[in-house]
Amino acid sequence: MTTLFDPLVAGELKLANRIAMAPLTRNRAPGAVPPPMAATYYAQRASAGLLITEATAISAQGQGYANVPGLYAPEQVAGWRRVTETVHAAGGTIVTQLWHVGRVSHTALQLGGAAPVAPSAIAAKTKTYLIDADGRGRFVPTSEPRALAIEEIPGIVADYRRAARAAMEAGFDGVEVHAANGYLIDQFLRASSNRRTDAYGGSIANRARLLLEVMAAVTEEIGAGRVGVRISPVTPANDVSDPAPQALFTYVVEQLARWPLAYVHIIEGATGGPRDYQQGDTPFDYGALRAAYTQAGGRAAWMVNNGYDRELAMAAVAEGRADIVAFGKAFIANPDLVRRLRENAPLNAWDSNTFYGGDARGYLDYPTLEPA
Ligand code: FNR
């Protein structure tokens, strides 16, 4: 029987076990450059089969929160190289999550105070995070976005491609395309945020076009075996919804089956909330989603996330419902999560006050178990 602790080859990625660290924004990258302490933070967690970095902006326009890192400037690539070298020295495997926030941004974070961009000029009823001149963080409503002109879309796809190339230069083992949680790609996917009448709006195929163009570019640039993708079929995060999520995401995974990807990463339910969150008339059927992917020829590892504990994760892998389980908050608080899961040791509790922003406290100082 397969367990969480068995190794796995996922595309070109060699995982020591089936436990992934979920992408976790920590807002500790002033000037959008990962600080030296980020190398320590990720290396502390290098026993994960796969580390997925915090979401990382592909462009200045893709930035939506204070002090999140990017991959569009040489000093950012250098900062990430410090991280990947430290993680590799510790025996880990690490990919970076490529991010464009779309409308989930603020004019204060955009070049020249510009409006954030979106599929349609519909503001998200959600907040973003700014840090004031005195260093104090605060959540503020997002700014009114403007709709992208169709002529601008190739430039955005090119930004994803460039960022994937930059990730390779920074020494990452691969990238995860962030198509979840109501950010730009998900804003195109879901009907509530996409009212376009051109080739990128309307039908499911049109709404999925941006994602598939990004996947084509990124896989061509670095090889499909180094690429994963994250989707969240029903999460209401950042004010997105769709009347027919099962049909939409069935189409998405059938199309993703075109590429021999490293993995497909599914957030089940509402991100950080109920796993049984329902959108549309019927509960979302994740088993059917996977079956559709496999039927279409998809062979990538299937990664699941959201509210998993030891028992649920062990069962998911043992029963073949998932190949990899990603843990978020538990990894913030437990650098040695893999060992704790293996030994069924108690977990440290997380402190949500230090999730976003701040210093090494709540970042580097969670204790590990005593050496065995
Ligand atoms: C997140 N999450 C998240 N998701 C994502 O795709 N990119 C990101 O950068 C972040 N950032 C982030 C920061 C913090 C502090 C939290 C708590 C969450 C969502 C995260 O990856 C995961 O989906 C959820 O935390 C649910 O998994 P757990 O925590 O129940 O294992």
Describe this structure in words.
With 372 residues, the protein is α/β, with parallel strands linked by helices. The chain has a single domain (8-354), classed as Alpha-Beta Barrel (TIM Barrel), CATH 3.20.20. It contains eleven helices and 14 strands. An eight-stranded parallel beta barrel has the order 3-4-5-10-11-12-13-14, surrounded by four helices. A two-stranded antiparallel ribbon has the order 1-2. Helix 1 packs parallel to helix 2 (74-89) and helix 7 packs parallel to helix 8 (286-295). The two termini are 26 Å apart. The mean pLDDT is 97.
Structurally, the number of domains stands at: 1
What is the β-strand count? Answer: 14
Percent of residues in β-strands = 15-25%
Relevant CATH superfamily: Aldolase class I
| CATH class designation | Alpha Beta
Distance between the termini: 26 Å
Question: Remind me, CATH topology?
Answer: TIM Barrel
Query: Rg to the nearest angstrom?
Result: 19 Å
Kindly report the spatial arrangement of strands forming the biggest sheet.
3-4-5-10-11-12-13-14
Q: Describe the main β-sheet briefly.
A: 8 strands, parallel, barrel
Tell me, rounded to a whole number, the average pLDDT: 97
Corresponding CATH architecture? Alpha-Beta Barrel
**Which term fits the overall shape?**
globular
Count of alpha and pi helical runs: 11
Bound molecules: ligand FNR
Derived from helix and strand composition plus strand pairing, the structural class reads: alpha/beta
User: Which consecutive residue ranges, at least 5 long each, have pLDDT under 50?
Assistant: none
Topology as H/E string?
A: EEEHEHEEEEEHEHHHEHEHEHEHH
